[in-house]
Design a protein that fits this description.
- The protein has 186 residues and is α/β, with parallel strands linked by helices.
- The protein has one domain: CoaB-like (Rossmann fold).
- The chain contains five helices and eleven strands; from the N terminus they run αββαβββαβαβββββα.
- The chain has helices spanning 2-11, 40-51, 93-100, 117-127, 169-185, and strands spanning 17-20, 33-36, 56-59, 66-68, 87-89, 106-113, 132-137, 149-150, 153-156, 161-163, 167-168.
- Strands 3-6-7-9-10 form a five-stranded mixed β-sheet, with helices on both faces. A two-stranded parallel sheet has the order 1-2. A two-stranded antiparallel ribbon has the order 4-5.
- Helix 1 crosses helix 5 (169-185) and helix 2 (40-51) packs parallel to helix 3.
- It is globular and about 60 Å long.
């Protein structure tokens, strides 16, 4: 969704900087400025560094919530014993930006849910100080990862809920951006 949103935002006339992890497809629109990262920590640092000068932040990346506590460059040899992998939380980019947000800024986040979708997404919206949250459900066929289509529900900070049918990611991106534009006008 991030690439589709970046391309449609540029088409709408926005100056777009896309912080992007390792992907197989890049935006075709050459006006989208790419900032390539390889880790959750890199993504957090780049987003935080750019946030103060942006009007709208759309957080569409599925960033890992945890990372290995210890990283090694050498092969871990099999010894026959069990291995314990300790994980530590990554920086919560949405919550961090939500805490830094000025009244003139808009933040849109995403929630991928498997149960209690509306309640969980609404909780995330409030907890992270977002203006809208785009809900994806793993229960929706043809939506989310690995598809050129998506089925979204947009929830705003006034508890308005807009459910959309399955459509192309580009059309879903337009729905998201149109919602943000309507918030900016109000």
């Amino acid at each position: 969704m991030g690439i589709a949103i970046a391309e449609i935002a540029a088409e709408y006339g926005a100056s777009v900087e896309l912080v992007i992890g390792p992907v197989s497809k890049l935006p075709e629109n050459k006006s989208v400025k790419l900032i390539k990262v390889t880790t959750a920590a890199n993504m957090a640092a780049e987003c935080i560094a750019r946030f103060n000068s942006c009007d709208i932040a759309i957080l569409a990346a599925a960033v890992a919530d945890f990372t290995p506590e210890k990283v090694t460059r050498e092969k871990i040899k099999k010894t026959g014993d069990d291995i314990i992998l300790r994980l530590k939380p990554t920086i919560d980019i949405a919550a961090t930006l939500g805490n830094l947000k000025k009244k003139t800024q808009i933040i849109a986040g995403f929630a991928l849910e498997t149960d209690n979708e509306i309640a969980n997404a609404t909780s995330k919206l409030k907890l992270k100080n977002l203006d809208i949250i785009v809900l994806n459900s793993l229960k929706d066929k043809g939506a989310g990862f690995g598809f050129d289509t998506n089925q979204i529900t947009i929830i705003d900070s006034n508890n308005n809920i807009d459910k959309f049918e399955l459509k192309s990611k580009e059309e879903a991106a337009r729905d998201i951006l149109d919602k943000i534009v309507s918030i900016m006008k109000s």
